Amino acid sequence: MIGLALGAVLVASIVVAVTIGPASITxxxxxxxxxxxxxxxxxxxPPLRDGIVWELRLPxxxxxxxxxxxxxxxxxxxxxxxxxxxxxxYLLGLSSGASLGAVSVVLLGASxxxxxxxxxxxxxxxxxxxxxxSSLGAITPTRTVLAGLAVSSLAGAITSLVxxxxxTGDSYREILSWLLGSLAGARWPAVAIAxxxxxxxxxxxxxxxxxxxxxxxGDVSASSLGVNVPATRWGLLAATALLTGAMVSVSxxxxxxxxxxxxxxxxxxxxxxxxxxxxxxLVGAVFLLWADTAAxxxxxxxxxxxxxxxxxxxxxxxxLLLGRRRSxx
Amino acid sequence: MSGLEASRVRILAGSTLIVDGVDCTVPxxxxxxxxxPNGAGKxxxxxxxxxxxxxxxxxxxxxxxxxxxxxxxxxxxxxAFVEQDTATETAMSVASVVALGRLPHQSLWGxxxxxxxxxxxxxxxxxxxxxxxxATLSGxxxxxxxxxxxxxxxPSLLLLDEPTNHLDIGAQLDSLDLLRSxxxxxxxxxxxxxxxGLAATYSDHVIVLRDGRVVAAGPTxxxxxxxxxxxxxxxxxxxxxxPVTGRPVLAFSRLE
Lengths: 329, 256
Description:
By secondary structure, chain A is mostly helical.
């Protein structure tokens, strides 16, 4: 029921967000344009305005929704598998690793490999973070976040360096959009990458809800319930890295979506993953869609990287979550 | 032969030998206690008997089914394991914790709480707080909920690691009475117990572990003798009879 309501909110948000922007376009015109491209009659808009809807705003809004959904799922899974309420692809370094992978192949001119490189980058970063955290002793949530900070700082610095040395012209802007996350360049290919990743990695993850529930009491407990712990853990972490890699390859590293939205959804529907995962995806989609709409329209004609918006909202909530755990170090 | 049979079980932690060539049997439908000094390897052995920890060598079977090589879900329908300390970060309700026990019986998008969950809550006296959050329960209540989860697996063999740890005496007796009645109902129960007195009072059989080896095993009354306790624990023990229950009671004093 909540799912259907959220689905309706998402569809409405997509249509409304497309109407928002410097060129004023109405609701009906948006429907008309979308309908015409899906083969339902002619577009009510002149070609230029139709292009704004179909070539610029709609793919950007859809990318924002897909990336938001993917990051929220990734966060929820990581929180369950690492039994760490602070886990998130951005905080644990996956996003920065994916950015580095993506930037490297873009500059080498092998853009076709973009999602693959981003996936490998996020896998390597995840491996490094977990290895670093475990070298500090027992893997506690706080240690994992510290290790993630080290990994993401390093990957971020290398990303900046790579762009700085190789790119020409407007490279500062490009650095910013990879490090802070931006959907400014999202067109239909970005939509395709993000949606394919959601289907390929997101759906198997969502079907694993009960397995994730079994992790609530730790590995021994999950194993005694008949769960293949290593296969499940590494399979789901790989799916998460794939999801993160694909999302980062179209948007740069956008922070805090994976951290805060699953927590919010848990407050509403409880910790059961069969409800938590799909609802987090829907809420993540709506959230990032509006965050991006705010990023591109609040300070019109200037545009903020959307990662700034999510960080401004997310960082205080992160501090709050951290405060709740101050008994542990 | 039916019941739990382990043979030549060797368990390593890293390169350290924790359990060395253990053979033990637990007769079907009995309540058996696994006892031994700290560090004897009780928890490690239990985890291996529950097949969640792979031994370096050896075999474990129940009613003729090899447990270590059985498919995981099939195994989880035969054996349930209650760990010593259970904690969770998540805000799960008691009912959903117990419903996890249905996992080996249901598909992944399975039916959720069913009649077995309700019966397990009933049997452990936890129905009243089915809707409460697990993390808000007392230690004794949590222990009962984890036992309910184990019962929801509908196991033939129930393994428990220190089920009376951190419980007050009333809760300890409740918990052991419940295990006793499960065994009387045909379930095979093996519990690692720290308290020799409780082991003597409640168990049919006892397995005494020291330094990763079985030093004695058999019917409780015949096995927990003063001579054995002196050898294993270095204490003087006197076996008395509880005037109320007629069961053996152990009284301890230092060796002179």
